[in-house]
Amino acid sequence: MSGIAAPDYDFASLSPYDFEVFVRDLLSAQDRLIYSTYRVGADGGIDLKAATDKGWVVAQCKHTPSADKGSVLRAARKEAGKAAGMGFPLVRYVFITSAELTPGTERETKEALAGVAGTVEVYGRGWLNAALALHPEVERRHFKLWISSTQAVRAMMQDGVFLRGESRIQRIERNYLRFVHHETCEVAELALEEHGCVLLSGAPGAGKTTIAEYLLLLWWHRGFRVVVDPRTVDQWWVWLEDDTPTVFFFDDAWGQTHHQDHGSRHHDTDMSEFIESIVERQASTASKVLIMTSRVQVLQETVRLSDASRRAVERLAHCHVPVERLPYDVRGRMLFNHVHLAMTDPQTRQDLSIGSWWHRVAGHPNYSPRLIEIVVRRNRARSARELIDDLEEALENPHEIWGASFRALPPVDQQLLLTLSLMDSQLVQWQEVVRRLGGIPSSDTHVDAAVERLNGSWITKALHGGSQILALADPSQRDFLIRYLSMSPGAMTAIIKNAVKFDDLIPVCRRGEATELESNLRLFSSGEDLFRGVLDTCARELLLRFSVRGDVIAAS
Question: Pick from 436, 441, 455: which is nearest to 499 by CA?
Answer without folding.
Answer: 436
